[in-house]
Amino acid sequence: MSNQHDPNTLPPKTCSVDRMVTVKEDVEKVLAGKKTATRRNGRYADVGEIMTLEGQDFVVNKVYSQSLGELTDEHARQEGFESLEDYKQSILSMHPGMPWLPQMRVWVHEFSAVKK
């Protein structure tokens, strides 16, 4: 079960929303509607904050902590991958030497396109 946080009790952000999605392939997935969440080792956004990618705005809907052991294929699809194994291999290829530990916690940032 995910550890949902009250937005008023979240710890301070560790980075800014403009750094949340930066990898070209991920930006393309977001713009195509195939990626609706990103997991980071720090908290990059507050609920309601706007991320702008190539002129398109996306609003952050949820921010919560989750362990890697809680991830499912559905979570991987939120990230734009077909399966958890595909997502895991992509993350490990970007972070050589990083172990995939079930107890390791990440920050989930769920977002959606702002309708104009």
UniProtKB/TrEMBL annotation:
InterPro entries: ASCH_domain (IPR007374), PUA-like_sf (IPR015947). Pfam families: ASCH (PF04266). It comes from the Bacteria. Residues 20-115 form the ASCH domain. Keywords: Kinase, Transferase. One of its GO terms (molecular function) is kinase activity. The keyword Zinc does not apply. The keyword Acetylation does not apply. This is Fructose-1-phosphate kinase. The lineage of its organism: Bacteria, Bacillati, Bacillota, Bacilli, Bacillales.
